[in-house]
Design goal:
Distance between the termini of chain A: 25 Å
Structural class of chain A: alpha/beta
Oligomer: heterodimer
Helix content of chain B: over 70%
Strand content of chain B: under 5%
Largest sheet of chain A: 6 strands, mixed
Number of strands of chain B: 0
Strand order of the largest sheet of chain A: 6-7-8-3-9-10
Chain lengths: 412, 308
């Protein structure tokens, strides 16, 4: 079994667990028990298929999905990600394991309880939209409410509000086949949101859309999420999409969840070659932030009252550096000096030689800026560019070579 | 002389006799129900003056198909009147409608049951094959024995022959409903009954309508044969023509059957389509048959790629 790195979010506080999967298996075929036994014995998917005729769709998935996060399940086609998603609302019956939603085991629910869960608290968005062609946009948006037995007037109102939320109120009386792909999926989203569920399952929801529309829909989803925080489980085969919208990502390979973590964690410490291979085609400059690659390789000078410049110049010479970063005792960034500017400031006999020596055109980079944002500035600057965090604390600097090395990661 | 005989013929005889001896009350009930349907439709249709019927059909044609077809309908109906076959035609129409109603009432639920259970499909399929291929004369005789002569056994024989398409196409239509629609229905909390009514049947409707259309066509082709057991209608005219070797009478009856077939076919097909095509300049006879394959394009335009 491959290592599963489960990492909690960035904050120190343990986040609330919304959905918990515990040793979940899905085996397709006539003899699932034998297949699960073989999985426990550590046999490969191919061996199991050869002996039992069964296909292991999901192999021992164990991870938590936190309340209010966008959790992306990513993998190549055939990796079991859509199957895993359908286990959560039991469109596909799990073979073994527990799936806890709000602490309740979905796998043990009766038909009635399951229907209730699907009607009230968990809805789904489909890759090919799955809008019913015989209904208008409004009737489609109201579908979940209608099924749940909500009165006509109330469901019209709620469905209309959901359509308004995705900007399609004007199309309420249109038929789905009169809409473009992006609009159809907005209706799909409105239908899923109309019953105000706390969990939203999205199966490759934007994969059928053009790249521009896809980005637009991702932004739409993030906007809706910022207005009203839901737990979104999003299946995607597109790493860019996963990185863009995912708070955390689970990567699947041959039915196994090989890694769970934030986008940064996965990019920086890929669990295996499969995970690493995803980044070959990824624009690393969009993923990495300045703070991720800033290195403290420059000489730092701590500014103190009445400090002699001579020792500072000596240290720079010894480290063979042309420039140095001047920080306060609290490590707050003050400025950057070069040996020339510092020497001439000292010669003029100024009481505050550092401030006079600060290089004028050096502006520090904020840690949260992506590499693609800062690339130009690093390239144009003759010196490494300092990076600071939100509190103006010095984190390190980015030189041209650091930048190039980081971008080169995409190639290996 | 035969040395070897399994005695299947005797067995069939025995079954028919057994049914006659023991199930007469049940057969009487069936007879009464079908007699009520056929009689009701027939008296309703014949009560209407011919001009009113023609006007109604013309309006229907104008609404659903096109003005050209409406024109054709009026002209052809007057032609039937001109041949003095109006009452015969109305008898036939009521027989066809009654048989169709019975076929739908039995056939659509049966088709749904077949779609939901492979076991039912396994059992029903050979029965449908039997119903479609068994020569009509073979069951015409027991039908007359069970139900006497007249419109009732005519309707029953017609139902036997014409029901298979609506059963088959209902089954096919429901099985062909796109799996993402089914998943969507389930994901939003449909019970099996809700799934059937709100998702499966509406999406299978074009296919079900094609089945009904075929059922109507088949029952029309059965009317001549059914007239042999006294079902009446245009079949009688044709039969008279055959018996007297009167080609002219036979041709008139046949022509009326054809006209009725064209009218019913175009009108019922139009209900299988998404929208009424009325007033369009669609070519009068150039409409493609409402094949189920052609209807499935109404489904989602994206195939369910890679359920990873």
């Amino acid at each position: 079994m491959e290592a599963q790195t489960t990492t909690t979010g960035v904050g120190a506080v343990e986040p609330e667990v919304k959905i918990a999967l515990r040793n979940v298996f899905k085996v397709f075929g006539s003899n699932p028990e034998a297949a699960v036994k073989m999985v426990h014995e550590g046999r490969s998917k191919d061996e199991i298929h050869a002996q039992t005729g069964c296909t292991v769709g999901v192999n021992n998935a164990t991870f938590d999905i936190h309340a209010g996060e966008i959790f992306v399940i990513m993998g190549l086609s055939g990796s079991g990600k859509s199957t895993l998603l359908r286990l959560i609302n039991r469109l596909i019956e799990p073979t073994a394991g527990e799936i806890l939603v709000n602490g309740q085991d979905v796998t043990k629910m009766s038909k009635a309880e399951l229907t209730e869960l699907r009607r009230r608290d968990m809805s789904m968005v489909f890759q090919s939209f799955a809008l019913l062609p015989n209904r208008t946009v409004l009737e489609n948006a109201a579908f979940g409410l209608e099924v749940a037995g909500v009165a006509e007037a109330e469901r019209r109102e709620k469905a209309m509000a959901a359509l308004q939320g995705v900007g399609l109120a004007a199309y309420a009386d249109s038929r789905p086949d009169q809409l473009s792909g992006g609009m159809k999926q907005r209706v799909g989203l409105a239908r899923a949101l109309a019953s105000e569920p706390s969990v939203l399952l999205m199966d490759e929801a934007f994969s059928a859309l053009d790249p521009l529309i896809r980005t637009e829909m991702q932004d739409e989803l993030l906007r809706l999420q910022s207005e009203q925080s839901r737990t979104i489980v999003f299946v995607s085969h597109d790493l860019d999409e996963a990185m863009r919208i995912g708070d955390r990502i689970a990567i699947m390979q041959h039915g196994v969840v090989v890694q769970v973590g934030t986008p940064d964690e996965i990019v920086m410490n890929p669990a295996n070659d499969y995970v690493r291979s995803f980044f070959r085609n990824v624009d690393v400059s969009q993923v990495f932030r300045a703070g991720d690659i800033a290195r403290e390789t420059q000489v730092t000078l701590i500014e103190r009252k009445g400090q002699a410049v001579a020792s500072a110049l000596e240290r720079m010479r010894r480290h063979d550096r042309d420039v140095a970063i001047v920080v306060g005792r609290d490590k707050k960034y003050h400025g950057m000096v070069s040996s020339d500017s510092l020497a001439s400031a000292a010669r003029s006999g100024d009481a505050d030689p550092y401030h006079r020596a600060f290089l004028k055109d050096v502006r520090p980079i904020a840690a949260w800026e992506t590499l693609s944002d800062v690339m130009g500035r690093v390239a144009q600057s003759p010196f490494p560019v300092p990076v600071v965090d939100d509190t103006n604390r010095y984190l390190g600097s980015i030189s041209k070579s650091t930048l190039l090395m980081s971008l080169d990661r995409s190639g290996n | 002389m035969q040395d070897f005989n399994l005695g299947i013929g005797q067995a069939a005889d025995a079954v028919v006799n057994y049914v006659l001896d023991h199930f007469m009350p049940a057969l009487d009930i069936v007879s009464a129900v079908i007699g009520f349907v056929t009689g009701g439709i027939q008296s309703a249709l014949t009560a209407l003056p011919a001009v009113v019927v023609i006007a109604l059909i013309a309006l229907l044609a104008l609404w659903r198909v096109s003005w050209k077809f409406a024109l054709f309908a009026v002209a052809s109906l007057f032609l039937i009147m001109g041949m003095g076959l109006w009452d015969r035609m109305m008898e036939t129409l009521s027989l066809v409608l009654a048989a169709t109603v019975v076929a739908i009432v039995i056939g659509v639920p049966l088709g749904i049951a077949m779609a939901r259970s492979n076991a039912v499909q396994l059992v029903v399929r050979p029965v449908l094959d039997l119903m479609q291929t068994m020569p009509a004369f073979v069951y015409l005789i027991p039908a007359a024995m069970f139900f006497g002569l007249g419109a009732v056994p005519g309707t029953i024989a017609t139902v036997i022959f014409s029901m298979p398409p609506v059963v088959r196409l209902t089954n096919l239509g429901i099985r062909q409903v796109h799996s993402e629609f089914i998943e969507a229905g389930q994901a939003f909390g449909c019970t099996p009954a809700q799934l059937l009514v709100k998702v499966q049947i509406p999406n299978a409707l074009p296919s079900i309508m094609a089945g009904i259309n075929q059922t109507i066509m088949l029952s029309l082709s059965m009317v001549v044969i059914a007239s042999m057991i006294g079902a009446g209608g245009l079949g009688n005219t044709v039969l008279t023509g055959i018996q007297r070797l009167d080609v002219g009478t036979g041709f008139e009856g046949g022509l009326a059957v054809v006209i009725l077939a064209v009218l019913l076919d175009r009108l019922t097909q139009s209900f299988g389509q998404k929208q009424a095509a009325g007033f369009s300049l669609r070519q009068l006879f150039g409409r493609p048959a409402a094949a189920p394959a052609a209807e499935t394009k109404a489904g989602p335009n994206v195939q369910p790629a890679t359920h990873g």
